[in-house]
């Protein structure tokens, strides 16, 4: 088999690490009947044609969770291959501005403390995000940039 003939789907994903004024992060659990169903994730979704990553994050968070956020800054880009799916996660730090998170397009949502993230099962690519957040005291940096906490 010629390796060049293997079809790999590629997706650019906008990912939000959303902080509240208590220093907690919003995570959501994927619907059971979806790819990697039942795993927890930082919310976000596929960047549509003609859309910036920041616009994607704003749109996805509104559609999936029904809340308003401020996209603060890019945190990291993670490229990861899940068998026949290659994802580029463009991760941004965000601040919760208003609304009560609702599981509109996910199974469950939860505010958690930074070190509680270890208690939840996340897709493999998300481990780099968690490591970066925990090792670098990211919440303090967000607060210094004008966070609401």
UniProtKB/TrEMBL annotation:
Which EC number applies? 3.6.1.55
What CDD domains has UniProt attached to this entry?
NUDIX_MutT_NudA_like
Q: Sorted alphabetically, which InterPro entries does this protein's record hold?
A: Mutator_MutT, MutT-like, MutY_C, Nudix_hydrolase, NUDIX_hydrolase-like_dom_sf, NUDIX_hydrolase_CS, NUDIX_hydrolase_dom
Q: What class of enzyme is it?
A: hydrolase
Q: Which Pfam families match?
A: NUDIX_4
Entry binding sites for 8-oxo-dGTP? 30, 41-44, 126
GO terms, biological process:
DNA repair; DNA replication
Q: Which GO terms describe its molecular function?
A: 8-oxo-7,8-dihydrodeoxyguanosine triphosphate pyrophosphatase activity; 8-oxo-7,8-dihydroguanosine triphosphate pyrophosphatase activity; 8-oxo-dGDP phosphatase activity; 8-oxo-GDP phosphatase activity; metal ion binding
Reaction catalysed?
Answer: 8-oxo-dGTP + H2O = 8-oxo-dGMP + diphosphate + H(+)
The cofactors required by this protein are:
Mg(2+)
Keyword entries, A-Z: DNA damage, DNA repair, DNA replication, Hydrolase, Magnesium, Metal-binding, Mutator protein
Q: Specify which residues bind Mg(2+) according to the UniProt entry for this protein.
A: 44, 64
Highest taxon listed in the record's lineage: Bacteria
- Record-annotated Nudix hydrolase domain positions: 9-136
Q: Does the keyword DNA repair apply?
A: yes
Under PROSITE patterns, the record lists: NUDIX (PS51462), NUDIX_BOX (PS00893)
Name the protein family: Belongs to the Nudix hydrolase family.
Name of this chain's protein = 8-oxo-dGTP diphosphatase
């Amino acid at each position: 088999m010629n390796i060049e003939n293997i079809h790999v789907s590629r997706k650019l994903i906008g990912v939000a690490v959303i902080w509240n004024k208590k220093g907690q992060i919003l995570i959501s659990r994927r619907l059971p009947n979806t790819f990697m169903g039942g795993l927890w994730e930082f919310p976000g979704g596929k960047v549509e044609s003609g859309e910036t990553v920041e616009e994607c994050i704003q749109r996805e968070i509104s559609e999936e969770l029904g809340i308003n956020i401020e996209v603060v800054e890019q945190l990291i880009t993670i490229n990861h291959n899940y068998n026949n799916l290659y994802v580029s996660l463009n991760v941004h730090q965000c601040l919760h501005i208003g609304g009560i998170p609702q599981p509109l397009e996910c199974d469950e949502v939860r505010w958690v403390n930074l070190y509680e993230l270890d208690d939840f099962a996340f897709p493999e690519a998300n481990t780099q995000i968690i490591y970066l957040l925990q090792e670098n005291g990211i919440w303090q940096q967000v607060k210094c940039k004008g966070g609401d906490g």
